[in-house]
Amino acid sequence: MSLKWLNRLRPSTAMQGRHPWLVSAGLALVLSTLGNAPFWWALTQLPEVNSLRAYAGLIGIWAALTMLMWVFVNVVVWPWWRKPGGVLLLVMSMTASYFMAMYGVVIDPTMVANATQTNTAEVRDLLSLTLLLTLVLGVGVPGLWWWRLQPGVCVGWQRWSHQLGAVLVGSALTAVLLLLVFQDLASLMRNHTSLRYMLNPFNTVYAVGRLAKTEQAQRQQPLQSIGDDASARPIADKAAAPLLLLVVGETARAANFGIAGYQRPTTPQMQALQTQGDLYFFSQVQSCGTNTQISVPCMFSHLDRQAKADSTANYESLLDVLHKAGWAVLWLENQSGCKGVCDRVATVNTSELKEPKFCSAGECWDEIMLDGLSERVAALSAERRAIGTVVVMHQMGSHGPAYYKRSPPSHKAFLPECTDNALPSCDAQALRNAYDNSIAYTDYFLGQAVGWLKTQPQPTAMWYVSDHGESLGENGIYLHGMPYKMAPKEQTHVPMALWVSPAMRQHWAVDDACLRTQQAKPWSHDNWFHTVLGSADVKTGLYQAEMDITRACRR
Ligand SMILES: [Zn+2]
């Protein structure tokens, strides 16, 4: 049997020996069309795209983008790295396309920063069969064609002239096409800002460049000390030095908290503590960012959200200030790192422990942070503990998309759960069940933490606040990390609670009725720095009384 037909199937033969312009145009076409499928899909879904004229405009935009892509390919893919260069562009575009289509995210500098700071467990949670399929079809097939392709032979100056010629001719044609579609394009981009972040691979190139520039600027900044004047309130009875527990939640949105009015009983423990009169829930709290990378450093910074965003300066954190005031500080890390805020204080990475009761597959449920906690606290300097102790717990919380992994099998009140990382292919109810189980487990964890605080002899209190919220499919958006100005409220409205022991109530001389009136006021992560300083009774020029949530209620 003749196997000659096999030769015809070889993808490389299609353009063998063709003009280099045609070859690069082929790649540009794949990138602008297949590599930008979510962008085109988003455009066709816009309300203003409803007429024949509008569709003609889209075709014009497509032609302009393809031409621009052709210029781009000729600018970055040079002959000596033609093969890997083209494949790299395909990988960038198709991976970004997958995450945009699957989770409704967009690619901006903070999203790239998030991606570079991720760990293997987080990557594992994002892998799915759909991603594999996307990469096989979107990168494998065109990549194979590109790799085996041999453009028409040209040597030396010819290579340069072809490439330079393509850039010149392409730029001129792009300019003409852009002029023709300018009005349509400008109004679309103005009215739908998220489209700007959807153009592959320009979005990734821009985000990486921007991020590198910011990080470079930050690296050149020396660490600036803050709160050098910090001093603690003198404590007469050493055994009565206060103990504060700060719980930094993860991906918990206020909308799914029973205590905040959600119709499901996701927070029985918090509500029981509230009924006892010891817990206050703050119902209108805004996060600083929409991801951990932004929110956690911002919460522990003396700068407010806007100032923090505008500054590349490298400052010490709230924990440094408490340490300077003489307090004992302990950070328990059960997630992917404290993003610099705990660099100079005692830390324990509980996510690396191998305690079979709480851990499996390289990660641990949040209860691990309570395991052996008394011993960990006792190991801190006794001299400092006689002034005050602050323990910070950085939760794994409701980290997605594998919400079902965030609660132990014995804590599954809501079933069935979605166990597919490709969230849109999950049943909406099963997805909500998995997420709600993670919230209910956080509620249980907070209840256990309060239980531990109650066993401590000194005045104790707990502050809990989540770092950001989460989208669970509202308007086709999943996960979090949207640029702040376009983020849906599900990603920025976070739960915050305060639990106060009777001894701490006396120590603070705090008024219950007054604290109750504070609960419904609009607060944000900007208040955290000053509120914690106030709760610790630490004096420093950095402290702003009007930013302290409890100040007005303490005597
Ligand atoms: Zn987070």
Estimated radius of gyration: 28 Å
Discrete helix count: 21
What is the name of the CATH topology of the largest domain?
Alkaline Phosphatase, subunit A
> Regarding quaternary structure, how should these chains be classified?
single chain
CATH architecture of the largest domain: 3-Layer(aba) Sandwich
Describe the structure.
The chain is α/β, with parallel strands linked by helices. The chain folds into two domains: 8-215, no CATH class; 251-553, 3-Layer(aba) Sandwich (Alkaline Phosphatase, subunit A), CATH 3.40.720.10. It has helices at 4-9, 20-33, 37-44, 52-76, 82-103, 109-116, 120-126, 129-148, 157-191, 202-219, 268-275, 292-299, 305-310, 318-324, 373-378, 382-385, 428-454, 489-492, 502-508, 512-518, 528-536; strands at residues 223-224, 243-249, 279-286, 314-315, 328-333, 346-349, 359-360, 363-364, 389-394, 460-466, 471-472, 478-479, 493-500, 522-524. The strands form four sheets. The protein has an eight-stranded mixed sheet, sandwiched between helices. Residues 5-14 have low confidence and may be disordered. The structure holds zinc ion. Zinc ion is lined by residues 250-251, 291-292, 467-468. Zinc ion binds next to loops.
